[in-house]
Amino acid sequence: MKTxxxxxxxxxxxxxxxxxxxxxxxxxxxxxxxxxxxxxRTTVNRAMRELAEEGLVERKRKAGTRVLPSxxxxxxxxxxxxxxxxxxxxxxxxxxxxxxxxxxxxxxxxARIGLDQGGRLVHLTCMHFGDGHPYQLEDRWxxxxxxxxxxxxxxxxxxxxxxxxxxxxxxxxxxxxSAMAADAGIARHMGCGEGDALFLAERSTWWQGQPITYVxxxxxxxxxxxxxY
Length: 229
Hints:
By secondary structure, the protein is of the alpha+beta class. Helix content is about 30%, strand content about 30%.
C-alpha cells in the first residue's frame, strides 16, 4: 500500500512531540526517511514542507531540517496564478508576451540562486491585464539546465507560471516583498508615472537543490497582498 504524505507527517510529528528528536535536533535526510517509511522522496518532501509551515521544523537548503527550539506560527502567502487572481476580481484577463530571449546567466542571478557558470536561461518579459489595464509585469528567468524543454516552449498563449506548474514541482522557495520606484521602462509597461511607488514580489524556486526559476513581479499601483497566520 502506498504511503501517503499525511502518514509520514504524522509519524515525524509524533517523534518530535515525543522527544525522539528534541529541539534543535537535525532530522535524517529525505532519502533516509523515504527508505525508512517506504515511500517516495517527494512524499517526504511534502510532509516536511507542511511541518515547516506549521512551525515545528526549520528547513534550510544544504543544511537540512532541524526541530525548532519552540513552535512558531508562520505566515502563509497565497500566490495564485495571476489569471485566476484577475478573474476572481471579476475582470477580463488578457496575457501578452513582450520579449523572449535565450541568454547566458548574468553574474548577479548566478550568485542569487546558485547557478553554475556557463549556464543558459530563457528570459521572458510578460504582461498580464485586467479589463485592458496593466495588472502585473512579469520578468522571469528559467534555468535550461533544469528545464531544457523551456527553450522550445510556446509562451505566446500561456504565461510561464502556468507552464512551470504543469512541468515541474518545487521543493524550496524564497520570496521577498518590497516597494520600488518605477523606472522609465516599467512606467511605460504599467501605464504609470516614472518614479511612482509600486509593489514588487521576487520569487526563486528550486527542485532538490537545482535552481528552477527566478521571477520579478511588479504590480499595479494600489495592489494589496493579504495573508493569514
